[in-house]
Amino acid sequence: MSEIPTAPPSGFRDFLPDSCARRARVVETISRVYRSYGFAPIATPAVEDLAVLTGKGVGETEKLIFKILKRGEKLDISRGSEELADLGLRFDLTLPLARFYSRLRGVLPTPFKAFAIGPVWRAERAQKGRYREFCQCDADILGSDSPHCEIEVIQAVMSVFRALGLEAPTVVLNDRRILSALLDHWQVPVDRHAAIFIAVDKLDKAGANAVLMDLGKLCGPNPPSELVNFIHGGQADPALLVRVAPEPMSRLTQIRDTLAQLSDSYGSFVISPTLVRGFDYYTGPVFEFRDPRLAGSLGGGGRYDGLTEKFGGPKTPACGVSIGFERLMLVLEESSAQETPGPDACLTVFSEELRLDSLRLAARLRAEGLSVDVYPGAGKLKAQFKYADSRRARLALVLGPEEEAAGKVKAKDLATGQESLVDFAALVAALKRPGPER
Ligand code: AMP
C-alpha cells in the first residue's frame, strides 16, 4: 500500500503556532490601519461561480484558476471543461468585491470604502515568495473617480508598512493608457497592444532581452527602434509622455506629487511607463510597492472603473490596492526574528479532584484580562512544568490541597525559577506587571 504523504501539496504550507501568532499580529495591524482610514471590513466566500472569475479583464491569470468539479453527477469527460466545472477558487479579492458590490450596492454607502483580508489561490509554479495559496489584504474605494482614491489607498498601505517598522518601499506608478499611447505613437497596430502588454509585464522577471525576443515574434524581425530602446532603458522622454498621453500623465503627476508631500519623506514615488500589472481590468493608474530585498512586488493595485458592469448595473468608478501578505511576512522575518510570547500563566492540574478548582481559578484570571492555559490532561507536575516552559508562559501555577486550604496559589517564575505563595489579588498584580520581553 502506498504511504499517504504528510507534506502539503506544492505551493501550500503548514504553519507552526509561532508563525500563526506572528501572522495574526500583522493581520491585526493591517486591519487597524485600514480602519483608521475609514475602510470597513467585508468578507466574500472562497468559492465563486466560474463566470465571476473568467472573461474579459482577467488576463493571463485565468489560466491559473483552480476549478472545482461538479458534484454528485457522473462526470462525462467528452463534454468539455465547461461541463465539468462550474465553480472555482477565487484568485484575487477584486472580482469577488465587484460581484459583492453589484449585488449589495443598494444597502451600501456611496462612495463605498471596504477592506478584505483572506486567502486566494492560483495554480502557479511554486517558489520562494510565490505560492498556490496565499493571503491578500485589499482596500478599495468604489463610486468615486477622484485621484483622492489612488492617493488614499497608497497612503494606507504606506501607513501599514510604517506601523510594521518596515524600511520605506518604492512606489512605482503608471497608467496603461500611457503605454498604449506610446505604442500608437510608434505606429504599432492596435491588435498587437494586448500581447505587447503581456510581454512588457515580464520585463522585471525575465529581463529586456527575453521581452525583446517576444516582441520580435509579435512585431516581426524589426520592431520600431523607439520600442526597442524603451524596453532596454525602461524609460521614455517625459515630454513625449505628456504629449502622447496628456490626461493620464497629468493625473499620475498629481498623484505622485501629493503622495510625496504627504509621505513625510517615507518612501519614494516614481513614474515608470513599463509597469503593466497582470490584470487587464485596470483602466487607469496602476501602482506597485517594491522592496529591494524581494524579486516580486510587496503589493499593488490600480483603478478598475467599470469592472462592476460585468455583473450588470451602472458603470462604477473604482480603485483598490492589495498587500501581498506572504511577501510582507518574508520581509518582516528577515528584519526581525522575534519569538511569540506564550500565555501569561500555565495552570497545572494537581489531581482530578482539584481540576474544577483550577478551571475556576483560570476563569477568574481570564475575567481580569489575562491569558491562562490550564494543563489539558493529567500527570506528574514535572511534566506539567515542562509544558509551561515549552509554552513560554511567564508563571507556572500550582493549586494543590495545601494552597487550596490556605486560599492561595503557588506561582513559579519560569525565567528565574523563583517560587512564591500568593493570594488572588497579588497573583493578578504580578501577572499584570510588565515583565521582561518574552
Ligand atoms: P495581484 O493580485 O497579482 O495584483 O498581486 C498583488 C500582490 O499579491 C503582489 O504584489 C504580491 O505581493 C502578491 N502575490 C501575487 N501572487 C502571489 C503568489 N503566487 N504568492 C504569494 N504572493 C503573491
Features:
18% strand, binds adenosine monophosphate, 16 strands, 5-stranded mixed sheet, 8-stranded mixed sheet, elongated, 438 residues, 39% helix, alpha+beta, single chain
**Bound small-molecule species:** adenosine monophosphate
Radius of gyration over C-alpha positions, nearest whole angstrom: 28 Å
**So what's the overall shape?**
elongated
User: How many beta strands in the DSSP annotation?
Assistant: 16
Average of the residue pLDDT scores = 91
Question: How many H/I helical runs?
Answer: 17
| Widest sheet: strand ordering | 1-5-6-11-10-9-7-8
Secondary structure blueprint with pairings:
Elements: H1 17-36, E1 40-41, E2 47-49, H2 50-53, E3 67-69, H3 81-84, E4 85-89, H4 94-104, E5 112-121, E6 133-142, H5 147-163, E7 170-175, H6 176-185, H7 193-201, H8 203-206, H9 208-219, H10 225-233, H11 238-244, H12 246-262, E8 268-271, E9 285-290, E10 299-303, E11 318-324, H13 325-335, E12 345-347, H14 355-367, E13 372-374, H15 381-390, E14 395-398, H16 401-406, E15 409-413, E16 419-422, H17 424-432
Parallel strand pairs: 1-5, 7-8, 12-13, 12-14
Antiparallel strand pairs: 2-4, 3-4, 5-6, 6-11, 7-9, 9-10, 10-11, 14-15, 15-16
Helix pairs in contact: 1-5, 5-12, 7-9, 11-12
Bound molecules: adenosine monophosphate.
Adenosine monophosphate is lined by residues 92, 122, 124, 129-131, 134, 136, 278, 296-300, 322, 324, 326-327.
Structure described in brief:
This protein is α+β, with helices and mostly antiparallel strands and 438 residues long.
